[in-house]
Amino acid sequence: MSSKGSPRKKRPGDEDKLTFKERLAALRNLPAFFRMVWQTSPGLTIANILLRIAQSAMPLSLLYVGKLIIDQVVLLTKDGEHSARLLWELVALEFIIALLSDGLSRVISLMDSLLGDLFANHTSVKIMVHAAALDLDQFEDSEFYDKLERARQQTFGRTVLLSQALSQIQDLITIGFLAAGLILFNPWLIGLLLIAVIPAFLNESRFNDLYYKLQWGQTSDRRELDYIRYIGASDETAKEVKVFDLSNYLIHRFRIISDKFYADKKRLEVRHAIWGTVFAVLGSAGYYGAYIIIILQTINGSLTIGSLAFLAGSFRQLRTTFQGILIRFSSVTQGAMYLQDLFDFFKIKPKMTSPVHPRPFPNPIVQGFTFEDVGFKYVNSEKWAIRHLNFTLHAGEKLALVGENGAGKTTLVKLLSRLYDPVEGRILLDGVDLREYDLAQLRVNVGVIFQDFQRYQMTVAQNIAVGNIDQTYNQPLIEDAARQSLAAPLIEKMPHGYEQMLGRRFNQGIDLSGGEWQKIALARAYMKDAQLLILDEPTSALDARAEYNVFLRFADLTKNKTAVLISHRFSTVRMADRILVLEKGGLAELGSHEELLERKGKYAELFELQASGYK
Ligand SMILES: Nc1ncnc2c1ncn2[C@@H]1O[C@H](COP(=O)(O)OP(=O)(O)OP(=O)(O)O)[C@@H](O)[C@H]1O
């Protein structure tokens, strides 16, 4: 998942400036952005644009009516006989335009905020949908996490971009109106205007780039900061933080990073403020230059006093609008560059997909699963976790995996359930590569409970139903699963039974012991009628008798099914039909308990070791 070709890869850290061309290039993201906005709500988008077009005619109308009013007043002061009726009509008109303009801007900001909220929700959902489709190993890559993080930031940041981009369009139209008025009276004032605003614009662009670079370079530190904040104040970590007295260390680490953020930002803010002031002074000088020219023309008699007010007003308004546009231009382009992160994230494609024409999943499985010279290493590791692995898991067989820590047991299980694909060799199901079956059908047919299963802060019933989420409301099935995993007696004793909230995060939640959690998690395995059931040490926290009972029950319940179980307890392991001993990612031994004891190899050694502990 390298981001080769992405122009931003080189930026953080190095100081090469972002060229105007690069900034303009970022604008190419806007059409796609507006498509997303449009998909969020076509009605609100159209209404917003129409209202903004109406609003952009308001400043010129106000100024022009203002000019007419002043000219009428001057006329009345010179000639008392003149009727004042037109004057009052004009004043009434100006009042109506002012009210309309105010009303319009309120409705526009309401629409912006509604559209922004909808867009943020829509994008968050899109990100979740996309993240759910990605592969497990993509989540193990820190570069991926940075992308995900930046994409998440986009959802709220982009609502600002939305209203800015729309304001930009509105202001451009406003400028069109105002410039038309100005050109009619004095075309070369426009030139003076450009001189007054362009330096300020360049300055703002430069600082926007610097802010972007600063933020970009801080992404992974920011993740660390969030993580420290989380472990510093979370129900899940509070226990360890206290016994190891970690809080001072965490606070210290937090301070170091956040102080650095503050110092970097402050340096930039101060520079920005200084340069901003310098260019604002230049802009004002331009404005007053133009003002003097208009005043001189009025004294000459070539302009009326109304026109003086109109031109000065137009010029001032043009300058602010222009400056607004130019300053916003750089933040719009900056926003458009940030959008690239969002689109980059959407471009990450899962590698593990279903084939276009998948084979129907065998039901029942006839031969079983065959590992053919399977090798696998994790993306972030150089070491083979499994290599040259050959064996067959026969249909209907109960296979136990045994091996020391890090031998590759969990990795084997992940390959079997297609959370990963082999890097070398292949896994066959009934003689056909596992990759040729539909992934969703495979998930339905293979049930896995991992040693590090999730403890969801949800009700007991929901915690069990995650094993087959389509059956969330199938209470008899949930209760049946709980009986099979031997969790039922425990649940019946809880104050709210199956509706009991677990974990302490939410109201009235209770926490369970490790073994109690495991019994609940085990019930997930019985929620669906999977043909292959895998239990990866989910019973390690059960006492020896409870684990024995669980597996006795497991063997009974999986009579016609294929099952793989991992356990470090040999009293459990010996119940399996065959035992596969893994050593450093390779097959060391394979056979029944008796056969392996007879062979006096690794298994016998480990078995004796454990047995001697009980003597
Ligand atoms: N996500 C990962 N990224 C990189 N390396 C990993 C990852 N998961 C496991 N490994 C490495 O792969 C090897 C096999 O790990 P695996 O989890 O399969 O062992 P295991 O036999 O299940 O161990 P245990 O009995 O401790 O659960 C180990 O060397 C481990 O360090």
UniProtKB/TrEMBL annotation:
Membrane topology: Multi-pass membrane protein
Keyword hit for ATP-binding: yes
SMART domains the record matches: AAA
Coiled-coil ranges per UniProt: none
Entry keywords, A to Z: ATP-binding, Cell membrane, Membrane, Nucleotide-binding, Transmembrane, Transmembrane helix, Transport
Location relative to the cell: Cell membrane
GO MF annotations, alphabetized: ABC-type oligopeptide transporter activity; ATP binding; ATP hydrolysis activity
Gene Ontology CC annotation, any one: plasma membrane
Protein's UniProt name: ABC transporter ATP-binding protein
Organism of this sequence: Chitinophaga solisilvae
